[in-house]
Records
---
Amino acid sequence: DAGITQSPRHKVTETGTPVTLRCHQTENHRYMYWYRQDPGHGLRLIHYSYGVKDTDKGEVSDGYSVSRSKTEDFLLTLESATSSQTSVYFCAISGGQVVFYEQYFGPGTRLTVT
Amino acid sequence: AQKVTQAQTEISVVEKEDVTLDCVYETRDTTYYLFWYKQPPSGELVFLIRRNSFDEQNEISGRYSWNFQKSTSSFNFTITASQVVDSAVYFCALSEEGNYGQNFVFGPGTRLSVLP
């Protein structure tokens, strides 16, 4: 199994509060991704990173920001959480230098915004 | 734009039945990759297989087999002699070679329930 961890695994927060989710990998892979998974929508890409300090937006990036200061860590921040951001968040990495190959996923973070 | 369709939202079978999960994709690229993932009730996403667009050879792995047909843009997944542990949501995905970073597109998933 790919070495990907996410923290926290579960979080309940109130509307308007900032939230940061962390993804940590031990595979030294270049590409990292944040997805959200919602019923009826499948997996949707929020942001991705193609190297340290190199990030770009995905399909549903509004309300989210990311940072990657080290190869192994990719942070997802909700600046001011809203109820629509209640979801399960998955981090993923893609193997080595071949970005088109399979992505390996972390265990997920279940976020509830009340 | 690339797209993946999994027309079967939910399938229920009785244990030991064979079941096929359909996946139809759209892409303009000549080089692309297709994948299947499994998401069991515990929630993790497990990679099952990758196929390259230039390799239409079907693949068998134990009770799992995959049928890739470029002529119909399909990449179907068959489970033979299904077991209760096969109950999960299965996602088909497509990756295009020319679209860095945002190249991965997932289908909506098919929920498979295998009843004892």
---
Amino acid sequence: NAGVTQTPKFQVLKTGQSMTLQCAQDMNHEYMSWYRQDPGMGLRLIHYSVGAGITDQGEVPNGYNVSRSTTEDFPLRLLSAAPSQTSVYFCASWETGKGYTFGSGTRLTVV
Amino acid sequence: AQSVTQLGSHVSVSEGALVLLRCNYSSSVPPYLFWYVQYPNQGLQLLLKYTSAATLVKGINGFEAEFKKSETSFHLTKPSAHMSDAAEYFCAVSENQAGTALIFGKGTTLSVSS
């Protein structure tokens, strides 16, 4: 049981490039979310999904897209990377009564 | 709208001393409250949760937290700090069991000295 798997662990992008951060969970959880973590800011919700085919925006959605074609996968797309998107990104899935299980994170640097 | 305030971005204690990390929440409905811990270069790990059962919640690694509705608080405590407790701690609140609106505090870094 792998839990929540995020790839890659580290990434450096040039301004304007696009990329997809991958997230997969094997716990059959319906609810999944993407957060970004910045020093002194805690974790801020980017997008979330309540099930396959259903997504919604969180607190800081601008510059990011998501899709949820399967229960297992919830990729986060950066459309045109900007230095302000330099951050650590966490994917998480939720089970009622237990809370979130977090992935180990992707550290993204945009230069 | 719900929110979480963690008082003190950095707390320092000596090994063996009491750990107290403060969290106050704002919520228009009975909240679900959580404490997470993050060790360096790792993801977040659930310490404990309050989901409207007992107001005193025991978690992993000897931590516990008490839900006080009158004070809108959910402070995290541990009677005796250990060096391995040094980490960043996050309080979080959700207004629903679905978890689609989990709001985190900005975190408190705990340092433990020998």
